[in-house]
Design goal:
Number of strands: 22
Structural class: alpha/beta
Largest sheet: 6 strands, mixed
CATH class of the largest domain: Alpha Beta
CATH topology of the largest domain: Rossmann fold
Strand content: 15-25%
Number of domains: 2
Radius of gyration: 24 Å
CATH architecture of the largest domain: 3-Layer(aba) Sandwich
Length: 497
């Protein structure tokens, strides 16, 4: 049992994991998965209940005590020092010799690398590594400390599809060696692909523990959210209207001052969703930041509703009807502020919320209650700090703020990243509702299923350029894949709606 102010995070949870198995811990965002494992790792202490390790009752007061019991945890957001080397990160915090045992550390790192195919350069600095390589460092760090029970918290949220496949091979090899792997996830495909058993949590309680071979995605989804979930959404046909966004030969630089956007052109009309597909790091972030005024434009033109807005600042873009759901969930939100305060971060100047320097608290509270109800935000109260909400509910706060103003152009970057199947279904329906209302929607996503499901047209991005822009009805998955890899460029691009 674990309680937080206003929230019962774990309600009389029974959970058991065995040697040599991969046990998936499945649930919606906010179901209590990570809280339960943070109790096992000593970050939180339970209010009630017992923990048994290898049949002996234990009290785990800190991560150090968990490590001494052979428990390791790889967090969703890696706990590494970017400027240090791989080997320095792995031995950081260990008790022992005064001087850094560099040679011995490298030897043990090599042993783990060879045994589990955790390929990583001990001398590389963390900032030089991809997300997948950093995750391998975290796994080696846990093994270096003697972990036989390894907790992986949403381990695929920052990985490419290829890195996900590599991870599955690694954890299966570790389980075959007799280790216990607890795999926290909300992704049904991953559960079916990698786990031996699965425990489903909903609202802090255990719904079921099943052998993975005895269940399927539809049944697991029903257990997760308490209802049937649509895995595909059929969108109604909508006639595209007037052009809302036009970009012509746009150029922009990345954070290092190197070309990131190289002369892209595109148009998005009322009542259509244009999806931008591509592997992460090919200029998607720089493009949307340029469009909303967060990044300087180096060349080209941007027009919204026929008005040239090239180089306009974010506030002016908002007033022009351009709203933005960023890829990083907390970008544009303030975790320490309340849910109600976050709802008005863009609109606090409106006369509805006050006159002059003073805000109307009663009107702000009324506005918050309306959005909480309309968008199904699960929160103890409108005054709850945003940081205490689950990831899915934080995303609902963001989407409520960005769509309740009825934008002319909605730019949504990775709107369902890290969310569970129920939250994804809700957000898909919300984006389609904006399309049906007549908004122009620019969707950026690395999830091809999402792009194909929602988009009317698809633009494929590679190294800052569009390799092709095609109708979603005519899109071929193999052709899209070749364009994403940069080995094929479509000769004719459907730039206009």
């Amino acid at each position: 049992m674990k309680r937080f102010p206003g929230v019962l995070a774990n309600d009389c949870v029974d959970f058991e994991a065995r040697p040599g198995e991969i046990h998936a811990l499945l649930g919606e965002n906010g179901a209590g998965k990570t809280t339960l494992m943070k109790i096992l790792y000593g970050i939180y202490q339970p209010d009630e209940g017992d923990i048994l390790i290898r049949g002996s009752q234990v009290s785990i007061q800190s991560p150090r005590e968990a490590i001494e019991l052979g428990i390791g945890m790889v967090h969703q957001h890696f706990m590494l020092v970017p400027t240090h080397t791989v080997s320095e990160n792995i031995v950081l915090g260990l008790r022992g010799k005064f001087f850094f045992p560099e040679q011995a550390a490298r030897q043990r790192i090599k042993e783990f690398s060879d045994k589990y195919n955790l390929i990583v350069d001990p001398e590389a600095r963390i900032w030089q590594l991809s997300a997948g390589e950093q995750q391998r460092v975290e796994i080696i760090k846990a093994l270096y400390r003697g972990a036989q029970i390894l907790i992986l918290d949403e381990p695929t949220s920052m990985l490419t599809p290829g890195e996900v496949e590599d991870l599955f091979v690694i954890v299966r090899r570790m389980a075959d060696e007799g280790n216990t792997i607890i795999f926290i996830t909300h992704k049904l495909d991953e559960v079916m692909a990698v786990s031996d058993r699965v425990t489903v949590l909903r609202q802090g309680r255990v719904e079921a523990t099943l052998k993975t071979t005895d269940t399927n995605k539809r049944d697991l989804a029903r257990l997760m959210v308490g209802r049937e979930v649509l895995f595909r959404i059929e969108k109604e046909g909508v006639q595209a209207g007037d052009e809302v966004l036009r970009i012509e030969d746009v150029h922009a630089l990345n954070d290092k001052g190197l070309p990131a956007i190289k002369g892209v052109s595109l148009a998005v009309a009322q009542g259509e969703i244009v999806g931008i597909a591509g592997v992460a790091g090919n200029g998607q972030r720089e493009l949307v930041e340029t469009l909303v005024g967060l990044r300087p434009i180096e060349g080209g033109r941007i027009l919204v509703k026929g008005q040239e807005v090239t180089g306009w600042p974010p506030r002016a873009m908002i007033e022009q009807g351009v709203y933005y759901v960023p890829g990083e969930r907390l970008t544009g939100l303030v975790p320490e502020m309340s849910v109600a305060e976050n709802f008005i971060l863009k609109t606090y100047r409106d006369q509805r919320f006050g006159n002059g320097p003073f805000l109307d608290a009663q009107e702000i509270d009324k506005h918050a209650e309306e959005l909480i109800s309309e968008y199904g935000v699960i929160t103890p109260s409108r005054d709850t700090p945003l940081k205490l909400l689950s990831g899915g509910n934080i995303q609902r706060v963001m989407l409520a703020r960005e769509t309740s103003g009825e934008p002319a152009l909605l730019i949504a970057a990775h709107p369902t990243s890290g969310l569970d199947v129920g939250a994804i279904e809700y957000i898909w329906q919300l984006l389609l509702a904006e399309r049906e209302r007549g908004a122009a929607v620019l969707l950026v996503s690395e999830d091809l299923d999402e792009v194909f499901t929602l988009s009317d047209r698809i633009a494929v991005m590679f190294e800052g350029e569009f390799m092709g822009v095609v109708s979603a009805n005519d899109a071929d998955l193999e052709e899209i894949g070749l364009m994403m890899a940069g080995v094929y460029r479509r000769p004719e691009q459907e730039v206009l709606a």
